[in-house]
Automatic annotation (TrEMBL):
It catalyses: taurocholate(in) + ATP + H2O = taurocholate(out) + ADP + phosphate + H(+); glycocholate(in) + ATP + H2O = glycocholate(out) + ADP + phosphate + H(+); glycoursodeoxycholate(in) + ATP + H2O = glycoursodeoxycholate(out) + ADP + phosphate + H(+); taurochenodeoxycholate(in) + ATP + H2O = taurochenodeoxycholate(out) + ADP + phosphate + H(+). The keyword DNA-binding does not apply. It comes from Oreochromis niloticus. One of its GO terms (molecular function) is ABC-type oligopeptide transporter activity. It is a multi-pass membrane protein. This is Bile salt export pump. Keywords: ATP-binding, Cell membrane, Endosome, Glycoprotein, Membrane, Nucleotide-binding, Phosphoprotein, Repeat, Translocase, Transmembrane, Transmembrane helix, Transport, Ubl conjugation. It comes from the Eukaryota. The keyword ATP-binding applies. InterPro entries: AAA+_ATPase (IPR003593), ABC1_TM_dom (IPR011527), ABC1_TM_sf (IPR036640), ABC_transporter-like_ATP-bd (IPR003439), ABC_transporter-like_CS (IPR017871), P-loop_NTPase (IPR027417), Type_1_exporter (IPR039421). SUPFAM superfamilies: ABC transporter transmembrane region, P-loop containing nucleoside triphosphate hydrolases. Catalyzes the transport of the major hydrophobic bile salts, such as taurine and glycine-conjugated cholic acid across the canalicular membrane of hepatocytes in an ATP-dependent manner, therefore participates in hepatic bile acid homeostasis and consequently to lipid homeostasis through regulation of biliary lipid secretion in a bile salts dependent manner. Transports taurine-conjugated bile salts more rapidly than glycine-conjugated bile salts. It is found in: Apical cell membrane; Recycling endosome membrane.
Length: 1277
């Protein structure tokens, strides 16, 4: 399923009757991202989403107290009264018109009459202000209280969930739910409700006025109105289509970014950019089509409205003139009554959308609130034993993680841990060691079997009590963002300072803490970021010790440390183990040797058990581990000795980058940091650099849009004409009033001509809307496509290390391409259109009104800013006020984020309650802010609603004076007032309906950030050395390397190895010893931090990247194929030239692939499916080999190319590989001895260096690590 498409099943999953945690999505994070893509298409999704909404509208209020309900009821009453104000004003308006016309015919004291009307208007205005204020502030206040309660309930429920639930629900998703989803509920139960009630009332009352005053005319107008609705409905449909059109391109982007290493290795960047661009065409077409259709419908709506006007005035005036049924005032009342009713109905619909999305959000949130956790950590139930000895036993435990039910982690595990002894768990990674520890803490319950403590099944014990017995120190200890003392205090509530100091001393932490300026009050930073690895580890040990635990669990507690810190921490651990039941998981011998019992794990079973020496004799799992390790340690120590004698003292600092922050701190002055280290520094400082983007300058955005200037010009012309329509309409409208309703014949003619004019204006406006819509959408979509292509190209040009950063995961990048690029157009075309439109609108209005009466115009102009403000305010009301709440929620969000990210640590310490209380304390500020906001917001709303009434009261009063004293014709009073008032409100609306301008600038800035980033290893430039007779002579000299995303783990530690052209080099060693890393350095996915890689004597950092990669073919363990035919996948091997079918076939024959392909119905045109899912592993592997062969590489890299295959396919693939190796330099990484034996050089690696190398026979003669591996037949892993 392409990742850009609207993928809804994950919403359903979360909703499955409270078993949400049993559902595993292959990509829990990805599937959430796919939903966020489609924010814009929510309207279109509504119909598919329906099954997921299971919360009725009134259920949203289930947490309201009596007081809240009273407030909401009063708010509703106010809204009802407020809604009837506008139609009420129409009655006044009708009387006013009649008065003016009577004055025109027979003189009466117009000034006095106008005075009366002014008072009416002021009265209605005051009432509206009061009602508006009450209806909003009451509802917002009530909602604030309910939302605070929902937040509390939700968070405290989430903190009670069992750990398995968190495995299936990504933390990112939970954080989003806590902020966005709860805000959605807020939108649905706050001001929107009262506004909906108000608008609906206006709708009903408007029609009532129409029918009561003149039913004939009302029916005529209603007859034409469905046409308007049709237009609006079709517009919503289109948004969905556009998203689906982008989905194809999005899936291309996702596929390419997910397999970026393959793309880079085969130099496919340019090809992929073209493929992506081809797929963008359809999205662009839809976008333009959508613009055209939007333009068409907007134009169509205006046309219908103007035709309606024409029809109504023509028919209405005949009723006034011929049958004398109506007065002119009635005509206006009816006409405006129906118009206002229709408009309010339209404005009420966004509220319905808010209700729907609120209900959708509430479904998930309320389900969580109602869900009972399987393992409830806060429950009081369960026994507490009086005496605890500390015997732990696993009886036939079988277990799989709820998030991956198909993978069995523990399989009939039986282990006994005696009290007071130290038991070490050893074994390859993934054997279930850490899982066993988590079962002891009761993070999970076993599927079969049981875990007992002193013979009691731990499921019967009280959880908080059980966990309080256990101290745990993990591989990556989690510290909370507070002081050192507080962090240690988390171990046990109410612990005295003396105990803290004792614990710190026991953990060997006391001395370093006292050296810090603030001692125990030093802040450790977010996630303990200010401390080095060893310091964090010791604080964590102190925290575990302060509990005075009966059972101590050490999960790789020293593995991430450098040798010095390790010795210190190890010493601390040895001190505290005495007299406690201790389980230690470790990979390093030094930590295991002196354990009382060593248990070897493999595939979820305990396969051996005994002391160090007994197990060495057994030659099993433990033996393999030991052999590789001791050799590695020896070699490392040798190296260290050499470097000490050498004059280069600085190597010391790089010996292990365990606490690389320290090394940065101390050595910045003494020697220049390598660029990559610097890069990391800047990375960790800019942890959340997404938020710090400066909005991009509009000039730069326009520069990208420059080629489309003709479109923008025509669009602007269209916009200008559209802007002029509003004032012209008021001109026509007042012209109608001016018709002398006395002389029938002249009148008929005049009325007909005015009605005709209405039709003309409608038609013109139709075409200009169409023009504006098409031109701007065309320029905008071309810009979007251009940015998407450039952005994608920039992404593919980054070095591979850039993709390791979690912020640049494929999901995040595809989202960025999908949404950011399309938001940018909000800052160019449509924005310009908006500005031109508004200027034309105001300009024309002012010219008209100054021309007819400058005095009255000046008076009204005083009100204009307020009118524009109110228009803007009303439009922003439609979007609701959730955005401001976000800032207030930050502090609470930080606590919840920290709590959810470290839920395991918190559960282990039994600190859930504390975090819930901290969170609730933080909720008070946003709540107070919301209450304050309710008042301000209510006042603003009331003001914006009543300003029109006040304007009218002042201007009609003054107009009456001008009519009486200066003989101004009364129709001109109407003309001036309506021209300015309509243009003012239109202006306000326009200003806020602009597609988010600020958002567009920020999206653009993010995009430019990407475009401006200079990759450290650039694929696109042609600089660098190239040479003709490329031989494939490879040398690694003293290579040291750490991955930029994990700077504290030294992967290569001074690798020295060389291969002559045509030779085969095999790397052997345990996982994580740097075998694959060396291959990646050769491909130049990364550059070494220290030392160099030479090819034919050239330093790789100076060689042209694409030239270098074009000489290397790679076959990896899990070959990545693209979603196209077999032939295309093989051709992918060489993207620099056109490849004939014969070459493809000969490559396939060499890879033992040809016969299998010919057996398929579509032969070489068979589609391999996404990620090659239609094929078996052996088949995929052979396609990958053919792909590597076709580029005729000088160097062939085989990274575990056969390890994932069964024996039969392995034979075939192995044969293919042996053929492919002939005459090429080859580097093989393998775990099976059969694949290595006939290599020219075998290099045994451990901990990032080569510990021995030579041919098979030489190494056997050495009787070193390799010999032990071969003779015991132990797996090399």
């Amino acid at each position: 399923m392409p990742t850009g498409s609207v993928k809804l099943q994950s919403i359903k999953h979360l909703g499955q009757e409270n078993h949400s945690y049993e559902v595993s999505d292959e990509e829990p994070t990805g599937s959430y991202i796919t939903i966020t893509h489609s924010k814009k298409g929510e309207k279109a999704q509504k119909n598919e989403e329906q099954p997921a909404i299971r919360v009725g509208f009134f259920e949203l209020f289930r947490f309201a107290t009596c007081k809240d309900i009273q407030m909401m009821v009063v708010g509703c009453v106010c809204a009802l009264l407020h809604g009837s104000a506008q139609p009420l004003m129409l009655l006044v308006f009708g009387l006013l018109t009649d008065t003016f016309i009577e004055y025109d015919i027979e003189l009466l004291d117009i000034e006095y009459e106008m005075m009366m009307f002014a008072f009416y208007y002021v009265g209605i205005g005051a009432a509206v202000f009061l009602l508006g204020y009450l209806q909003i502030s009451l509802w917002v206040t009530a909602a604030a209280k309910q939302i605070q309660l929902i937040r509390k309930l939700y968070f405290s429920k989430v903190m009670r969930m069992e750990i398995g639930w968190f495995d299936c629900t990504s933390v990112g998703e939970l954080n989003t739910r806590m902020s966005d989803d709860i805000n959605k509920i807020n939108d649905a139960i706050a001001d929107q409700v009262s506004i909906f009630v108000q608008r609906f009332t206006t709708f009903v009352c408007g029609f009532c006025v129409g029918f009561v005053k003149g039913w004939k005319l009302t029916l005529v107008i209603i007859a034409a109105s469905p046409l308007i609705g049709v237009g609006a409905g079709l517009m919503a449909l289109l948004t969905g289509m556009e998203l689906q059109a982008y989905a194809k391109a999005g899936s291309v982007a996702d596929e390419v970014l997910s397999s970026i290493r393959t793309v880079a290795a085969f130099g496919g960047e340019k090809k992929e950019v073209q493929r992506y661009d081809r797929n963008l065409v359809s999205a662009q077409r839809w976008g333009i089509r959508k613009g055209l259709i939007m333009g068409f419908f907007t134009g169509f709506m205006w046309l219908v409205i103007f035709l309606c006007y024409g029809l109504a005035f023509w028919y209405g005036s005949s009723l006034v003139v011929d049958t004398k049924e109506y007065t002119p005032g009635t005509l206006l009342q009816v006409f405006f009554g129906v118009l206002i009713a229709a408009m309010n109905l339209g404005q009420a619909s966004p509220c319905l959308e808010a209700f729907a999305s609120g209900r959708g959000a509430a479904t998930i949130i309320f389900e969580t609130i109602d869900r009972e956790p399987e393992i409830d950590c806060l429950s009081e139930a369960g026994y507490k034993l009086d005496r605890v000895k500390g015997d732990i036993e696993f009886h036939n435990v079988t277990f799989h993680y709820p998030s991956r039910p198909e993978v069995k982690i523990l399989d009939q595990l039986n282990v006994v841990v005696k009290s007071g002894e130290t038991t070490a768990f050893v074994g390859p990674s993934g054997a279930g060691k850490s899982t066993a520890i988590q079962l002891i803490q009761r993070f999970y319950d076993p599927k079969e079997g049981m875990v007992t403590l002193d013979g009691h099944d731990i499921r019967g014990l009280n959880i908080q009590w059980l966990r309080s017995l256990i101290g745990i120190v993990e591989q990556e200890p989690v510290l909370f963002a507070t002081t050192i003392a507080e962090n240690i205090r988390y171990g046990r509530p109410g612990v005295s300072d003396k105990d803290i100091i004792t614990a710190a001393k026991e953990a060997n932490a006391y001395n370093f803490i006292m050296d810090l300026p603030q001692k125990f009050d030093t802040l450790v930073g977010e996630g303990g970021g200010q401390m080095s690895g060893g310091q964090k580890q010791r604080i964590a040990i102190a925290r575990a010790l302060v509990r005075n635990p009966r059972i101590l669990l050490l999960d790789m507690a020293t593995s991430a440390l450098d040798n010095e810190s390790e010795a210190v921490v190890q010493e601390a651990l040895d001190k505290v183990r005495l007299g406690r039941t201790t389980i230690s998981i470790a990979h390093r011998l030094s930590t295991i040797k002196n354990a009382d019992v060593i248990v070897g794990f493999e595939h979820g079973r305990a396969v051996e058990r005994g002391k160090h020496n007994e197990l060495l004799e057994r030659k099993g799992v433990y033996f393999t581990l030991v052999t590789l390790q001791s050799q590695g340690d020896k070699a490392l120590n040798e190296k260290a000795r050499q470097s000490r004698s050498s004059p280069l003292g600085m190597t010391k600092s790089l010996s292990r980058a365990g606490s690389y922050r320290d090394s940065l701190r101390y050595y910045t002055n003494s020697f220049p940091i390598t660029p990559s280290l610097h890069h990391i520094c800047s990375f960790s400082c800019l942890k959340e650099d997404d938020e710090l983007v400066e909005p991009a300058p509009v000039a730069r955005i326009l520069k990208y849009n420059a080629p489309e200037w003709p479109y923008m010009l025509f669009g602007s012309i269209g916009a200008a004409v559209n802007g002029g329509v509003n004032p012209v309409y008021s001109l026509l409208f007042s012209q109608i009033l001016a018709v002398r309703f006395k002389y029938p014949v002249a009148q008929r003619k005049e009325i007909n001509s005015i009605c005709l004019f209405f039709v003309v204006v409608g038609i013109v406006s139709f075409f200009t809307q169409l023009l504006q819509g098409y031109a701007f959408s065309k320029s905008g979509e071309l810009l979007t496509r251009r940015l998407r292509r450039l952005g994608f190209q920039a992404m593919l040009g980054q070095e591979v290390g850039w993709f390791d950063d979690h912020r640049n995961s494929p999901g995040a990048l595809t989202t960025r391409l999908a949404t950011d690029a399309s938001q940018v157009q909000g800052a160019t075309g449509s924005q310009i259109g908006m500005i031109v439109n508004s200027l034309a609108n105001i300009g024309v209005a002012l010219i008209i009104s100054f021309y007819f009466s400058w005095k009255l115009t000046l008076l009204i102009l005083c009100f204009l800013p307020f009118i524009a403000l109110s228009g803007g305010f009303q439009a922003s009301m439609l979007t609701g006020f959730a955005k401001q709440d976000k800032e207030a929620m930050e502090a609470a969000g930080q606590i919840s984020g920290e709590a959810l990210n470290n839920i395991r640590t918190i559960a282990g310490l039994g600190k859930e309650k504390t975090f819930v209380e901290m969170y609730e304390a933080q909720l008070d500020a946003p709540y107070q802010a919301a209450l304050k906001k309710a008042n301000i917001y209510g006042a603003c709303y009331g003001f914006s609603q009543c300003i029109i009434f006040l304007t009218n009261s002042a201007s009609y009063r003054f107009g009456g004076y001008l009519v009486q004293k200066e003989g101004l014709h009364f129709s001109l009073v109407f003309r001036v007032i309506s021209a300015i008032v309509t243009s003012g409100t239109a202006l306000g609306r326009a200003s806020s309906y602009t597609p988010d301008y600020a958002k567009a600038k920020i999206s653009a800035a993010r995009f430019f950030q990407l475009l401006d980033r200079v990759p450290q290893i650039s694929v696109y430039n042609d600089k660098g050395e190239k040479w003709d007779n490329f031989q494939g002579n490879i040398e690694f000299i003293e290579c040291k390397f750490t991955y930029p995303s994990r700077p504290d783990i030294q992967v290569l530690n001074g690798l020295n190895v060389s291969v002559k052209p045509g030779q085969t080099l095999a790397f052997v060693g345990s996982s994580g010893c740097g075998k694959s890393t060396s291959v990646q350095l050769l491909e130049r996915f990364y550059d070494p931090d220290h030392g160099k890689v030479l090819i034919d004597g050239h330093d790789t950092t100076r060689v042209n990247v694409s030239f270098l990669r074009s000489k290397i073919g790679i076959v990896s363990q899990e070959p990545i194929l693209f979603d196209c035919s077999i032939a295309e996948n093989i051709k992918y091997g060489d993207n620099l030239r056109e490849i004939s079918m014969n070459e493809v076939i000969s490559a396939a024959k060499k890879a033992q692939l040809h016969d299998f392909v010919m057996a398929l119905p579509e032969k070489y045109d068979t589609n391999v499916g996404s990620q090659g899912s239609q094929l078996s592993r052996g088949q995929k592997q052979r396609i990958a080999i053919a792909r590597a062969i076709i580029r005729d590489p000088k160097i062939l890299l085989l990274d575990e190319a056969t390890s994932a295959l069964d024996t039969e396919s392995e034979k075939t693939v192995q044969e293919a590989l042996d053929k492919a190796r002939q005459g090429r330099t080859c580097i093989v990484i393998a775990h099976r001895l059969s694949t290595i034996q006939n290599s020219d050089i075998i290099a045994v690696m451990s901990r990032g260096i080569v510990i021995e190398k030579g041919t098979h026979d030489q190494l056997m003669a050495l009787k070193g690590a390799y010999y032990k591996l071969v003779t015991t037949g132990a797996p090399i892993s």
